[in-house]
Amino acid sequence: MASSSSSRQTKHQVCLSFTGEDTRLNFTSHILKPLKDTGINVFFDEDTLEKGDQLSLTFSQAIATSTLSIIVLSVNYASSKSCLAELSNIVDRKDTEGHIALPIFYRVDPSRLRNLTGRFKTSFDDHEPEKLDQVQQ
């Protein structure tokens, strides 16, 4: 039942990870539109999820079947357990399967995440330490 990364089929070319409260109606839509306009198949939860779908499982499958993930790191991104789970999954696939991870810092200084200060520190402190270790690598 296990399949290698070489035998998996790509369902989406890009998986878009973001927190909706910060970016869904503004920044993320500005990323999504040109990608779709050029024919790139993007996993975007609002377009792809159907009623009753389990968000974490659906995202995990989308990450597994895509070649690249765009992570929109915004002020509240780390406050979302589902976003951190997505990020952990993306980093794991990057390390084991060569998945490409493209972080975009939206109204966030990258040093806040790198040095874990401000809201990122508070949010990461509230989550599982092993997830934090994996993301920081």
UniProtKB/TrEMBL annotation:
Q: Which InterPro entries match?
A: TIR_dom, Toll_tir_struct_dom_sf
Q: Which Gene3D superfamilies match?
A: Toll/interleukin-1 receptor homology (TIR) domain
Write out the entry's keywords from A to Z.
Answer: Hydrolase, NAD
EC number(s)?
A: 3.2.2.6
**Provenance organism:** Gossypium arboreum
Establish whether keyword Transmembrane is in the entry.
no
Would the keyword Amino-acid biosynthesis turn up in this protein's UniProt record? no
- Mind telling me what this protein is named? ADP-ribosyl cyclase/cyclic ADP-ribose hydrolase
This enzyme catalyses:
NAD(+) + H2O = ADP-D-ribose + nicotinamide + H(+)
Q: Which PANTHER family did the record assign?
A: TIR DOMAIN-CONTAINING PROTEIN, TMV RESISTANCE PROTEIN N-LIKE
The TIR domain extends over 10-137
